[in-house]
Amino acid sequence: MSQSGSQAAAFFRDFRQSRVVWLVRDDDASPAPLSADGTRSLPFWSTSARARRAAKIWGHGLRVESMPLDTWRDRDLPDAAREGYKIGINWSGQRLVGWSFTPREVLNRLAAAD
């Protein structure tokens, strides 16, 4: 399994225990980097430590926040779908890279993991 694959698997495993997802943001929004295919991804992490590492790498005053899984699933993922975003899962490394899924794919994986 690739590094990105193992990070994605860890995300879906970790959330079952904590029922929380983690994000980084400033006062305005969360970063939504542009990918090579022209889509933007909103990144989320399965632990506070992973999100803190991302905030440190990106800098710019980003802070770490948690969100209950139910809120993320019922509100944020549908909003991301309407706005055309993908969802980055447990991006890691010095360049914060990893897999991104459509919100529908994330919802399907969440349902399969429950």
UniProtKB/TrEMBL annotation:
Name this polypeptide is given: DUF2750 domain-containing protein
Record InterPro entries: DUF2750 (IPR021284)
Domain of life per record: Bacteria
